[in-house]
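G., the chain you wanted modeled:
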Amino acid sequence: MDTAMLLRILLPRNGGGARMSRWSAGVLKAAVPRRVVVTGMGVVSPLGCGVQHVWMQLLEGQSGITKLESESFAKLPCRVAALVPRGATEEHKLDLEKFIPKSDLRTMAPATAYALVAAQEALDDAQWHPKDEQGRNETGVSLGMGMVDLVDIADSSQLMSQRGHSRVNPYFVPRILPNLAAGHLSMRYGFRGPNHCLSTACATGSHSIADSARLIREGSAKVMVCGGCEAAVSPLAIAAFCRLRALSTGFNDEPTRASRPFDKSRDGFVMGEGAAVLVLEDLEHAVCRNARIYAEVLGYGSSGDAHHPTAPSTDGLGASLAVRRALEVADVEPEEVGHVNAHATSTPMGDEVEIKALRLVFGDHLEKIRISATKGAHGHLLGAAGALEAVFVVMACQSGWVPPTLNLDLIPDDLSKLNLVAKEKQKWETGGRRVALKNSFGFGGTNVTLCVAQYED
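Predicted structure as tokens:
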């Protein structure tokens, strides 16, 4: 039932000037979905810390991918990764102890610590630090993690076998539970709204944002602090992904060239780490408190491939369903979309299937869309990837700049007519509202597409 029909049913028949009953007004308000906007963002990434700094690094074509110099990686086929830069003196490098006491760091996984740092920036950016019970009760958390740190598990197992169970860290279990990032965030700020943790592999960050938008639309929260975090780079994790033949192995001596979305010579993804957190808010709530609004989340779509544990369905149908559903929920026509931030991890099959899925949805209009794959600059952050790239989509919608796809030297012939934003940022010129999509796909065939737009009153 659409809003117009509902109005005809609920409004009194004795003249347009009569007031609706309190019950009728309540039903109407519940039937009209709430608008969801972005009011704050925070980033810890291989390109550095801080949204504005990372955004400028991205637009300038900088790379956060480095060589893994430790001896423990020396015999592995892949010896590159995208690590969060550390440092106590440089502004945009991460000093965890500046944000979290050393005693607390021992109780949490590195990914959780990254999430807390990103969340602090996002909440400060949104100027949302509610002191009253109502504000805290209406603020929820949806923060996901793709996979736990295997170092904790391997080291604890070895320690127990050598020295007995009493030597196992008493915080071992909290450190490896994926939902403890959301838990720590909720506890730190006293947020008592919905507390969720999604773990959908490389779609985690985007699913967390999508789920948060839904909770706000249905009235379960006024504010959601959401995103993804990951810190899983280790010899065991690198070895495991190498056994799946998923990682880049041909650019160990040229790390900044290793992640090559859509390029003919792409040979796998580059593991990355970090966290990205967004503050989503009910539009009415944001306007009432005079919050700065970056962009609007119009909707999302999700689907499953029903195909294979690690490989995407080669027909692109599963991914295309997620894109179609996002457009339907957002009430956006395909021709209105001007930018897609692609999942494009730099694997031979994955990038090809994503373009196939986009062709199924957009047809010839795809040639007019700016398709950007930012993993060339920051690698693949697994569970945090969708959240970080959603930040970039928000910034593109707000600023009118589309970030480049790095290392795109040789464009495959079948992609030659597409605008893949190769190597250089592009100005996003449009006669109307800027509308963008963010794709995320994960192992197990889980797909999600976010639809984000420039905010308009």
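The CA atoms of residues 107 and 356 lie 45 Å apart.

Shout if anything looks off.
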